[in-house]
Design goal:
Blueprint lengths: L15 H7 E4 L3 E6 L16 H9 L5 E2 L8 E7 L2 H12 L3 E9 L7 E9 L9 E4 L5 E13 L2 E8 L6 H8 L15 H9 L3 H6 L7 E9 L4 E5 L9 H6 L4
Parallel strand pairs: 4-10
Antiparallel strand pairs: 1-2, 2-4, 3-4, 5-9, 5-10, 6-7, 6-8, 8-9, 10-11
Length: 256
């Protein structure tokens, strides 16, 4: 049975007042938002108010909006959109040159005892029924990825960790966390049974997922983003929402 949840298979429509409450900074060039974990970045078939890009375009009466930094739907935190081509080009050039620093917060399964760094190549997993699933690869295949994990505190049997990726590969943090045997809580692809993801995209948040997975979205948050060029620099921060979403209470209710 499907359970009514903002983290369902189909994202809820964004309300104009919600969008305004997510805006952290806005100028003639950019708009920066603190995206919740149930919001899709890219336009979808359900109309403009079903995605962050569509909602901003409608709210500001723009013909086009440029998604400069994106997050997976279930990852919350800092997202930058550019209002015109020149701003988009400058920001995209900075990202391509890796003139960026990114800091995430993640709630990981188990106790991460010490800081760990994972460096590997990543590639699409051809053996998985989940078509978007990535995996650590060997033999020179895939693209290089480097991720640093640092434990901050324990929430019950789990770890609130700071994560700093030095590359931007698809699902990088989630794949590397699982490789360390400390997957991101709520991750429907990498935290356990891949059938969780297949069930979710078919039926939304179900009784079985609530019972077995417990966390309705992956506990991953883009907390800080710094990006710079030759004569400019932006720094943005979004507060961690895990406690407000009840994740600390849920984590501390579990036994080690």
């Amino acid at each position: 049975m499907s359970i009514e949840s903002p983290f369902g298979a189909e994202a809820l429509l964004i309300k104009p007042e919600q969008l305004e409450s997510w805006i952290m900074e806005e100028s003639e060039d950019i708009i920066v938002l603190d995206k919740p974990g149930w919001v899709v970045c890219h336009p979808s078939k359900n109309g403009p108010w079903s995605s962050l890009v569509g909602a901003v375009r409608e709210a500001r009466g723009l013909d086009r909006i440029h998604l400069v930094s994106r997050l997976d739907r279930e990852t919350s935190g800092v997202v930058i959109l550019a209002k015109h081509h020149k701003a988009a080009s400058q920001l995209q050039t900075a990202f391509s040159k890796r003139n960026t620093k990114k800091r995430y917060l993640a709630l990981l399964k188990g106790h991460l005892k010490e800081a760990r760094t994972t460096e590997s190549n990543l590639e699409k997993d051809p053996e998985s029924e989940v078509v978007v699933k990535q995996r650590v690869s060997f033999g020179g295949r895939g693209k290089s990825a480097l991720t640093h994990f640092r434990p901050l505190e324990y929430w019950g049997p789990h770890t609130l960790a700071e994560v700093t990726p030095e590359s931007g590969r698809k699902h990088q943090i989630r794949v590397h966390a699982a490789w360390l045997e400390h997957p991101v809580l709520g991750d429907k692809i990498y935290a356990g049974d891949p059938s969780w993801y297949l069930e979710f995209i078919e039926n939304g948040w179900t009784d079985r997922l609530d019972r077995e997975l417990r966390y309705p979205r992956q506990a991953l948050h883009a907390a800080d983003l710094e990006v710079w060029g030759e004569d400019w620099k932006f720094t943005f921060s979004a507060p961690c929402p895990f406690e407000a979403e009840g994740y600390r209470t849920l984590a501390e209710s579990e036994t080690a």
